[in-house]
Sequence to fold (405 residues):
Amino acid sequence: MQNINSSVSPYRWVVLGVFMLNIAMSQILWMTFAPIARDAAAIYTGGNIDLIDLLAILAMLAWIPFCLPAAWCIDNLGLKKGAGIGVVLVGLSGFLRIFAPDYGWLLVCMIGCAIAQPFVLNAFTKLASNWFPQNEEALASGLLTMSMFVGFAVAMFATDLTLAHFREMGSVKQGIDTILWMYGIPSLIGMILYFVLMKDKPALPPNAIAAEKKVTMTVGLKALFRNRDFLYLLGLFLIGVGAFNAILIKIDYIFKDRPLDIDSALATGIVGGLMVIGGLCGAVILSALSDKYHKRKIFLVMAAGMAVPLCLLLQYLSSIVLLGLFGFLLGFFLIPAMPVGLTYAVEKTHPVPEATSNGILMLSGQIFGLPIVFFFNMTAVAILFGVAFILALLLHDIKAPTVQA
Fold:
């Protein structure tokens, strides 16, 4: 085995920053029309909101055919080229949306954005493993996860605020055009920065796993589905990612027709915003703690265990103060489970290629998220998290890291 570089490259933070920008843009493009669906439908589809909703659902559907090809590209072409396919799709699709004259053009661009998702998001653990020492891997994945939710928050709040200004002026079409320019230029800049600044890996590997020779995807897939801990983790992601995505998408449904001490639409914005903010904090704090103490299981157990009562409290409470607090806590404990779980998978399954395990876990959550959205019930979600809690308890934690030479 190669000697492990004891002086980790400081350039890793440049690589991480560039990739975080492109991840954030991929999420912004995905969710652009979700908060302004009625206005976008009036402009592009003659009032058919279902066609606008389809633009967001495309990203979830794209995981089914493109997850494994994306993982193969990242593992075999390398981080820069493999994930670069997604970055190009994000940059060009986001920019070309600016000039969309009708729904057909817009749909083609959004299909490009949707296909980009697995190429970008499957690279989390590859980047963390290629560039970061073992005691920073979960933190790196946590920061990448944080950039997802920064993008989500920008799309939800900046989009609505921008269009609200133009609504008052009576120019919705100009407002949507402004939004497309506002997101299209940064997506193109992110693509350019990626190819100027991105590097596949440092001269010397920063950790033992990065130095290993990986098996092929076919061998890796067989190994994954024979690995007891990975199968339990797969169940956790299937429930956790799927349920959390469904909660964010259907958050207005949670407060609909319930007696609250403020307007239900306002409650939706406050609780949803605090949930995302809580997730941003947790993705950094809990991921860093996971690295510091080199423990993964306890954070996965804590995420699923806390989600059960918090989901029930969000379902039945009427105080906006308590709803905001518990929404923040749900995001704080649940979102960090993604980077911690992805890092745990790499450590438990190496020499399986990182993008392969990353891709299978993300795919499971995207697929299971669809039926949860269509048959959404917060009490049922709490029960699912109870199942996830049991699965987390059955995991074997990782061993203490070996001392790097």
User: Anything to note?
Assistant: DSSP finds 18 helices and no strands in the chain.
